[in-house]
Amino acid sequence: MRIKALFLILILALSLLGGCANNQPSPSPPAQTEEPNPSDATPDAVTTASIVDNAEDFEKAISNTGTWIICLTKDISTDKELVLDGEFKNGKKDDAGKDIIQRKIALYAQDANRNITNRYTLTAPKLTINSPEASLQHGTFKGDLYVSAKNFKLVDTTVDGNVYFTNEDAQSTFTMDEDSKITGTKGMAQ
Q1: Which pairing describes strands 88-93 and 99-101: parallel, antiparallel, or unpaired?
Q2: 116-119 and 108-110: which strand pairing?
Q3: Phi and psi torsions of 49, nearest 5°
Q4: What is the pLDDT of residue 15?
Q5: Angle (CA) 135 53 158, round 5°
Q6: Which 3 state secondary structure label does DSSP give 50?
Q7: Is residue 37 part of a domain?
Q8: Distance (Å, rounded) from C-alpha 73 to C-alpha 76?
């Protein structure tokens, strides 16, 4: 009986560490390469990754009751306006021992060695970023992006549309790496 209980606990622990399972290679969250920029605010939640392959699950994952990292397993398209909401911890601590606030939309899959194996496209008329310390990584977003939160990042991502900032803080703390591009305009929302 004890062996059976230990076996079930082991399976549960492995399931939690592995995230959501699917029949495709599971994208692992990428290693944090940038210096964390923690917030003093108390996060709403601490969660694991959400692996999504449809618009309905994606909408749930980006809500304020969703997960800190949302990993696509294929292209997703919706005619709805989307909102990335909520403040989340990523389960790590900074050098001072504070929880790291982070929110990530992973538009890619990777292998066990963290090599990108597939890139995906998220298509929506509008995506509003309200989560602090958020990023879009290694894929394409088709639509207009509205940034309201501080420290939003584009990492190796193409925005096939415009990027608008709803406040000065969002605009002044926005970053994008040299591999990212915006096909439309970038500036303050009117």
Answers
A1: antiparallel
A2: antiparallel
A3: -75, 155
A4: 45
A5: 35
A6: strand
A7: no
A8: 9
Question: What residue type is assigned to position 36 of the chain?
Answer: P
DSSP state of 11: H
Q: Which element (helix H / strand E) includes 103?
A: strand 103-106
Considering the domain boundaries, does residue 35 fall inside one?
A: no
CA 62 vs CA 57, 72, 122, 131, 167: distances in Å: 9, 12, 13, 9, 21
Q: Count of domains in the chain? A: 1
CA atoms within 13 A on the CB side of 78: 17
- Per DSSP, 185 falls in state -
Pairing of strands 134-137, 103-106: parallel
Which H or E element spans position 15? helix 2-18
The gap between the terminal CA atoms of the chain, to the nearest Å, is 65
CB 186 within 8 A of CB 167: no
Query: How crowded is residue 48: how many other Cβ atoms within 10 Å of its Cβ?
Result: 17
State the residue range of the domain holding 154: 2-28+45-188
Question: Is 16 a member of any domain?
Answer: yes
pLDDT tens digits in sequence order for the chain, 190 residues long = 555 544 445 454 444 444 444 444 444 444 433 333 333 444 444 456 799 999 999 999 999 999 999 999 999 999 999 999 999 999 999 999 999 999 999 999 999 999 999 999 999 999 999 999 999 999 999 999 999 999 999 999 999 999 999 999 999 999 999 999 999 999 999 8
pLDDT at 161: 98
What tokens does 42 get?
């108390």
